[in-house]
Each structure stands twice: as C-alpha cells, then as structure tokens.
C-alpha cells in the first residue's frame, strides 16, 4: 500500500532523513517510534507530498507520488486521511462545517446527505452534539477527535496520525488509542501512526519501526522490537536519558567562554 | 570591502527571490481566477463576497474620512500659494486633478494595505502556524484557490470602488474649504471641477488602483504563506506585508504615473 524507497531529505544543509526504507502492506497498522527530531513527522509530510525529498521515492498504491502532476495526486489524497498534531481544524468555521468541508468541496452530495454523514463521523469519534461549537471552544482531546472525524469524512483507505497523543493526559490519550483500535478493527484501514508514546505504540501496532537520527534502526512486530538488542532501541524503550559526558576541561571551557 | 559587496549581493538575491515568489503566487492566483473557471473549476463566490464586505465595504468610512481630510489639506496648501498670484480659482482644479490622478488611488491603497494587507498576512500566517494550510492541501484542496482567490477578487472589485469614493470625498473636502473660505458658491465649485477634470484623469486613477489592489493581495498572502516560527513570525509577516506593500505601491505609482504622463 505504502512503500518508501531510499528517501533522503534535507532542510537546507541539514540532512533530516537518511536513506529511509519502509514497506506497509494494505490493512496493516504501522507505528513509527522515535524521539523528538528523529525525522518521523518529516517522513509523514513526505508521504502526504507536503514536502519533496532530495532523492528517493514513495509509492502509494503502486503509484510513485513525486513525479505525478498535482491534480492526479489530489485524487489520491481523497483516499488518505491525516490527523495533524493539533487537529488543524479551521478556526473560522464550526466543527460540523470542518468535518463537512471535504464532502462539500469534493463530492456532489446533497446538503442533507452531507449533514447526516458528518453526524455519523462525529458520533464515531465520540463527539455527538457539539456540531455547532467553534474549534476555539474545544479542549485538546476534542480538537483531535474532531480532526479525526474530518480525516474520516471521505472514508479513506489510509489514515495517517501525527503524534495523536501529544499534549493529552493519559486518560484522554488512551481514549484516542482505543478509537484508533476501533477503526482498525471495524474498517481494516491501513494506518500509519507517528508517536513517541511507548504505551500507545505497543497497544495499537501490528508492526513497529524505530527511527533515530533520520534513519530506520529497527522494524518488526512489537515482540521483536521488545526483544531487540540494538542499543538505541533499548535506550528508547527503557527510557534511559542521554548520558552526560564527564569532561572537566570541557565543562570549565563552557563556563568561562567569552 | 568584500563584506559590503557580500551584503549587497545577499540582499539583492534575497529581494529577487522574494519577487519571484510573489510572481509565482500571482501566476497561480491568476490561473485559478481567470483560467480555471473555463475548465469547470468555478470560483467560490460566497467567500469572495464575504471578503469584499470585509475588505471593501467596511473600509468605506475610514477611506472617506481620510480622503476628506486630504482634500481639505490640499485646498488649504494650494490656496496658500495660488492666492499670491490671484489664482485661487484654480484650487478646484488642483484638488480635482490631484485626487483623481494620484491621491485618491494612493491614499486608498495605503489605507487598504494597512487594513487588509496586514489582515491577509495575519490570517494566512496563523493558519500556516497551526497547520491549517497543510490540512487543506492534505485534503486535496488547493490553498491558492480557496484562500487567495477570494481575496484577490475582492480587492480587484473593491479597489476601484473605494478609489472613486476617495476621489469624491477628497473633492468634497476641497469644496468645503473653497465654499467657506474662498467665496465660491457650490455651483461655481461644481462647474470648475467639471471643467478641470478629464475622463482620462479618473480612468488612469482607476487603473492604478487595480494594480495597487493586486500588489496588496499578493504581498499580504505571500507573507502569510511564508510565515515560520509561531506568533513572532506572524507578527513579522504582518508588519512586513504593510511595509513591502507600501513600497511596491509607490514604486508602481512612479512607473504608471510616468507612463500616463508620456502617453498623455
């Protein structure tokens, strides 16, 4: 379904992704684990063609996405739903209008049909009754749920999540996780989740990919990752902080530097 | 020495890159406004009309008031000099021609740059920071079509209208002074105005206003789309859009005024 082949990308001089390879078959839930700044969100943005790489290819449904015209990729985009880190709801319109937007713009459906479909999606994410609220009136968890309802509006085959539990308390985050599980079981979508939350990852993933420094350092089932002997994977899983090098001279230099 | 050259070189390249980005955005907006409708991708008129009200109708009070004051000031300053030659009759022509050819479009453009140009930059910049623009693109909706074209159309329609209102207000401002202070009757004023103005004066002003509207939209939207770095970035973009708009407006003014001077 999604194949990333040898992806390399830079922001200016800095290399962010270094020969990343990934293969996600249809119906699988893949979680990309990694610390901050390891390139996970950048990878997701490339899959959505919001950015272009320095080199490498991405195939979605066996079509290479960086060489096709924008119009053709927009057709493919209708089959992909993405939940952004903060929900990315449009602040000037209500929740219902947010969820209905893709339906209104991309389909010829009647208004009444659209309204019903919107309510179905909102109910699916546990947000019935708040259709007329404006995004500013919602809590963080509700914004994410509304963003998810919007991502689901066009009944996508692929769902992308950018740090779905970010900024949420453990209970609300668990709620989002069980929502993802529910979608996975009910709709058999291909789901790609980028996160640094271990608990979420092991709960929802069919397979996990661990990234570090812009590279994939491990891929496998949750069991395989748990048993991995790679030092960075172990450090990540066991929450071992970065070591502080003990160098008295270097320390003295930082204190007395002009 | 090389430091100075490098400084100029870097800034010139930066400026050229900025202009090319502006041109790119203009081309895309022009495509979605004028070409795409013929290919079945209709323009979103309700958004455009909402923007027309926000940017145009709501600016009428401030534009009229400022133009009125400018008209009064022009009459005062003009009379101050012309009285010495016993030519205060020509104050009317001075105000009329200055407003229609130059000050009407220019003052309107500067007010709208401050009001709407900054609003465009702030709105789009905030959307960029909260990933709303990415979300729009991720849904397969073109951000230029949905966000820029309504604003573009709004100013294309509203700038000439506002300029005409500004012309009127300025000329009336001049009238207030002339009738009250220079012993002219209102009828004398009307005759003098009508005699001094040619259609050409009004139309050149309106052409300029269209160009100014284009500049304001493009710079405001480009600054908004280019925002990086959160709230501070939005603030910078808002300021920058006003400053750059005004600069480009005056630059375009020089060019167009010269063209109109030489082509009569």
Q: Could you give a quick summary of the protein structure above?
A:
Chain A has helices spanning 40-47, 70-77, 95-106, 111-124, 140-152, 170-187, 198-204, 222-226, 231-237, 248-256; strands spanning 2-11, 14-24, 29-34, 55-60, 63-64, 80-83, 158-162, 190-195, 207-212, 215-220. By secondary structure, chain A is an alpha/beta fold. In chain B, helix 1 (2-35) packs across helix 6 and helix 4 (91-129) packs antiparallel against helix 6 (143-181).
Structure explained in plain terms:
- The complex is a heterodimer of chains A (258) and B (264).
- By secondary structure, chain A is an alpha/beta fold.
- Chain A has helices at 40-47, 70-77, 95-106, 111-124, 140-152, 170-187, 198-204, 222-226, 231-237, 248-256; strands at residues 2-11, 14-24, 29-34, 55-60, 63-64, 80-83, 158-162, 190-195, 207-212, 215-220.
- Chain A has a domain at 1-77 and 191-258: Rossmann fold (3-Layer(aba) Sandwich), CATH 3.40.50.
- Chain A is 39% helix and 24% strand.
- In chain A, the strands form two sheets. Chain A has a six-stranded mixed sheet with strand order 6-7-8-3-9-10, sandwiched between helices. In chain A, strands 2-1-4-5 form a four-stranded antiparallel sheet, covered by helices on one side.
- In chain A, helix 4 packs across helix 5 (140-152).
- The longest helix of chain A has 18 residues, at 170-187.
- The mean pLDDT of chain A is 87.
- Chain B has one domain.
- Chain B is built from nine helices and no strands.
- The N and C termini of chain B lie far apart (46 Å).
């Amino acid at each position: 379904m999604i194949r990333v082949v040898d992806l390399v990308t830079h922001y200016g001089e800095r290399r962010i992704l270094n020969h990343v390879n990934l293969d996600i078959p249809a119906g699988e839930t893949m979680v990309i684990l990694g610390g901050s700044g390891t390139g996970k969100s950048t990878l997701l943005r490339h899959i959505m063609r919001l950015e272009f790489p320095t080199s490498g290819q991405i195939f979605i449904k066996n079509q290479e996405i960086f060489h096709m015209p924008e119009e053709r990729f927009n057709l493919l985009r209708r089959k992909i739903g993405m939940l952004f880190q903060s929900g990315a709801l449009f602040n000037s319109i209500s929740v219902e209008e947010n969820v209905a937007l893709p339906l209104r713009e991309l389909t010829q459906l009647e208004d009444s049909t659209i309204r019903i479909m919107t309510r179905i999606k909102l109910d699916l994410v546990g947000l019935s009754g708040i259709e007329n609220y404006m995004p500013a009136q919602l809590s963080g968890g509700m914004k994410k749920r509304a963003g998810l309802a919007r991502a689901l509006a066009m009944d996508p085959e692929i769902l992308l999540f950018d740090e779905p539990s970010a900024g949420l308390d453990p209970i609300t985050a668990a709620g989002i996780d069980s929502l993802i599980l529910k979608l996975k079981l009910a709709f058999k979508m291909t789901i790609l989740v980028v996160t640094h939350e271990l608990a979420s990852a092991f709960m929802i993933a069919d397979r996990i990919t661990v990234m570090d420094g812009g590279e994939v350092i491990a891929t496998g089932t949750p069991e395989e990752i748990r048993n991995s002997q790679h030092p960075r994977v172990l450090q990540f899983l066991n929450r071992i902080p970065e070591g502080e090098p003990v160098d008295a001279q270097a320390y003295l230099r930082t204190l007395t530097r002009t | 020495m090389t430091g100075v050259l490098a400084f100029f070189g870097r800034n010139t390249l930066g400026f050229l890159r900025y202009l090319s980005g502006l041109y790119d955005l203009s081309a895309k907006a022009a495509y979605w406004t004028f070409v795409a409708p013929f290919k079945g991708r209709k323009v979103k008129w309700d958004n455009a009309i909402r923007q027309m009200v926000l940017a145009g109708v709501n600016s009428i009070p401030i534009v009229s008031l400022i133009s009125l004051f400018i008209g009064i000031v022009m009459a005062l300053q003009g009379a101050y000099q012309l009285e010495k030659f016993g030519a205060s009759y020509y104050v009317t022509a001075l105000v009329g021609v200055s407003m229609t050819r130059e000050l009407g479009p220019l003052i309107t453009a500067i007010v709208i740059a401050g009001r709407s140009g900054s609003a465009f930059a702030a709105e789009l910049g905030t959307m960029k920071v909260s990933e709303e623009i990415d979300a729009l693109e991720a849904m397969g909706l073109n951000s230029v079509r949905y966000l820029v074209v309504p604003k573009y159309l709004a100013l294309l329609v509203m700038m000439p209208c506002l300029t005409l209102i500004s012309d009127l207000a300025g000329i009336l401002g001049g009238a207030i002074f002339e009738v009250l202070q220079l012993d002219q009757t209102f009828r004398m004023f009307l005759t003098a105005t009508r005699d001094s103005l040619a259609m050409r004066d009004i139309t050149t002003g309106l052409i300029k206003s269209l160009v100014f509207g284009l500049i304001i939209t493009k710079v405001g939207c480009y600054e908004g789309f280019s925002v990086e770095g959160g709230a501070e970035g939005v603030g910078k973009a808002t300021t920058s859009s006003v400053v750059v708009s005004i600069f480009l407006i005056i630059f375009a003014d020089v060019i167009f005024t010269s063209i109109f001077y030489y082509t009569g």
